[in-house]
Design a protein that fits this description.
Elements (H helix, E strand, L loop, with lengths): L11 H4 L9 H11 L4 E5 L1 H7 L4 E4 H18 L6 E5 L4 H12 L3 E4 L6 H11 L3 E4 L4 H12 L8 E2 L29 E7 L7 E6 H13 L13 E4 L6 H14 L2 E4 L8 H8 L3 E5 L1 H7 L14 E5 L3 H11 L3 E5 L10 E2 L11 E3 L5 E6 L12 E7 L11 E2 L3 H7 L5 E9 L5 E6 L3 E4 L2 E4 H8 L5 E11 L3 E10 L6 H16 L10 E4 L13 H14 L3 E2 L9
Parallel strand pairs: 1-10, 3-4, 3-5, 5-6, 9-10, 9-11, 11-12, 12-13, 24-25
Antiparallel strand pairs: 1-2, 7-8, 8-18, 13-14, 15-20, 16-17, 17-19, 19-20, 21-22, 23-24, 25-26
Helix pairs in contact: 2-4, 2-5, 2-9, 4-5, 6-7, 8-9
């Protein structure tokens, strides 16, 4: 097999002189824009423009800087500054980056909002984050305004909701309020830059406080990791990603890497299997980002003489099916470089299989660099041996073990302390380390269902389903899905047993519709099975081990009703 690779990138200080002096995301962008004002920064392909109803084309670094500075003037004039948070539901549109950079220039933290979230989730996010303003696409303003009003009930602080073209109202509170940034200056890498919400095992999403250093370090790591993933300043890189900017992969790695090396980024509205290669060719992508579900879908298409008609040197991602990894690379002619990181770790602890041997087909995600300190622990707390599974614990080597990681879980000091128990971040991921020191992903300890790259809290889904009037008890667990990784299964004890199969189908669909109206579509059950009881412990908690067996039996026997077709993404 012939793969297209490049030489290792030069050391970062030689690539972009002075870049390590940058203290904010906006500062990094402004420096790169000053050096490459005429280079394209952001591309909107015709297919994405059509979905969003915006103009296609490329925006240069210089033009983007003008738009960002003009927007910052408006926010500053309205009174926004350090200590404020502004929630952004702007999908993968240029408006997201314009507003993020503009607010960052003023020391304002942004709260990216997953557009698939619905009423209960939006109300929680707006209230918990104490957002002073919400900026959203016009189609969602009314819904978000209702969520903001519900979140502010009893407090008298109802966050205004506007579209990007609306006048900017004054914030709810003065700048530099106590809960906000670590510093009241915009020249501090430790200042809060964003608040990203990630699912956990407790049912409520946790707000990860991320600093400017978190984002800057992610760009610096990617720019210098080298090997098969080497990034170049000349000629300029062109990175294509279909991943959402409200997640850390696109927001921290893709965007920050390109602005660090002066590259161009194209952010699709989402992954479209049928038009993917046309987008890759149309943009002239040299790098693509992926999730495990994508290679499986691309491999399902019939082989074509044009399969290698592209300029891609490598793909960066995680979760490729181990049986498809080698066949994909052989067919399409570039390596899929598996990596590991979490929202909590950022670039403080990131591993990537960017050097040989990559041990394709073994779920290998590479060898930790010298900047990382890791331990793999057995259940009893002792250190696991070679090829022995255990929980991965990570920290940064050197005097600052938390550098590059999340700063804290907002308003949850107990969870933050628990995450760092023993001086390492306890990841909850089970891995093994081989004789060469390379890590292999095995499983997740956390009670989280992972569907198409999205983390779904079983407890959160259960809490919503229990509010349905016909549900007496419910337990949610995953079942393997060949394309999406996991699919959501709900075992339901109904208030009254359906009379026949037709009645069961109607009730199952009603339960799923109920869930779809309150949670993101991907969290709704793809299968519903009606049962007489839920396996419980002596303390009336769901017995997760027995639940897994019960789900397997329900699927195997055909008693689980397939409702996957009801789970459709909404605009």
């Amino acid at each position: 097999m012939t793969l297209t690779t490049g030489p290792r990138a030069e050391p970062l200080p030689e690539l972009l002189p002075g870049v390590l002096e940058d203290a904010t995301v906006f500062g990094r962008f402004r420096r790169t824009a000053a050096r490459f004002p005429d280079r394209p920064f952001l591309a909107v392909l015709p297919e994405t423009a059509e979905v969003y109803g915006i103009e296609p084309g490329e925006i240069t670094y210089g033009a983007m800087l003008e738009a960002v500075e003009a927007r910052a003037v408006l926010f500053a004039g309205a009174g926004y500054g350090a200590g404020h948070r502004v929630a952004l539901l702007l999908q993968n549109r240029p408006d997201f980056l314009i507003n993020w950079f503009a607010l960052n220039a003023l020391g304002v933290s942004v709260v990216p909002v997953n557009p698939d979230l619905r009423s209960a989730e939006l109300e929680y996010l707006i209230g918990h984050s104490e957002a002073s303003l919400v900026v959203a696409i016009p189609e969602r303003v009314e819904e978000l305004a209702a969520a903001a009003e519900a979140a502010g009930t009893g407090t008298g602080r109802i966050a205004p909701v506007i579209s990007p073209k609306d006048a900017i109202p004054a914030p709810l509170r003065p700048a530099a309020s106590p809960y906000g940034a670590a510093s009241d200056t915009t020249s501090d890498r430790t200042k809060e830059c964003a608040l990203l919400y990630t699912s956990g095992t407790t049912g409520r999403p946790k707000g990860c406080v991320l600093t400017n250093d978190y984002f800057l370090l992610a760009g610096e790591w990617y720019a210098t990791v080298g090997g098969l993933s080497a990034l170049h300043v000349e000629p300029a890189e062109r990175m294509l990603t279909p991943l959402p900017v409200f997640h850390m992969n696109a927001m921290a790695y893709s965007v920050m890497a390109m602005m660090t090396v002066g590259g161009s980024i194209c952010i699709l509205d989402r992954f479209h299997p049928r038009s993917w290669w046309a987008s890759v060719r149309g943009f002239g992508a040299t790098v693509v980002h992926y999730l495990g579900v994508m290679p499986a879908m691309l491999m399902s298409a019939a082989p074509s003489p044009a399969d290698r008609d592209h300029k891609v040197r490598f793909g960066f991602g995680a979760g490729v099916d181990r049986t498809l990894h080698a066949p994909f690379e052989e067919r399409f002619g570039f390596p899929l470089l598996e990596a590991w990181a979490m929202t909590e770790t950022g670039a403080g602890a990131v591993v990537m299989a960017s050097t040989e041997p990559r041990k394709i087909g073994t779920s290998c995600f590479g060898k930790p660099g010298p900047e990382m300190d890791i331990v793999i622990r057995r259940e009893d707390g002792s250190e696991a041996g070679t090829d022995e599974p255990g929980e991965l614990l990570v920290r940064r080597a050197g005097p600052d073990p938390r550098r590059g990681f999340f700063r804290e879980y907002l308003k949850d000091a107990e969870a933050t302390t628990a995450a760092w128990a023993g001086g390492y971040l306890n990841t909850g991921d089970v891995v093994s380390r081989d004789a060469d020191g390379r890590l292999h992903f095995m499983d997740r300890k956390k009670n989280v269902i992972r569907r198409s790259g999205e983390n779904i809290s079983a407890v959160e889904v259960e809490a919503v389903l229990l509010t349905h009037p016909d549900v007496r008890q419910v337990a949610v667990a995953p079942t393997p899905d060949p394309v999406r990784g996991d699919e959501v299964v709900a075992l339901v004890v109904p208030e009254s047993v359906p009379a026949d199969e037709g009645g069961a189908r109607l009730l199952a669909e009603d339960i799923v519709r109920f869930c779809l109206s309150r949670l993101a579509y991907y969290k709704a059950p793809g299968f519903v099975a009606f049962v007489s009881s839920i396996p419980l412990t002596s303390t009336e908690k769901i017995q997760r081990g027995a639940l897994k067996v019960a789900v397997e039996e329900a699927i195997a026997s055909g008693r689980a009703l397939d409702t996957c077709a009801m789970k459709k993404r909404t605009a």
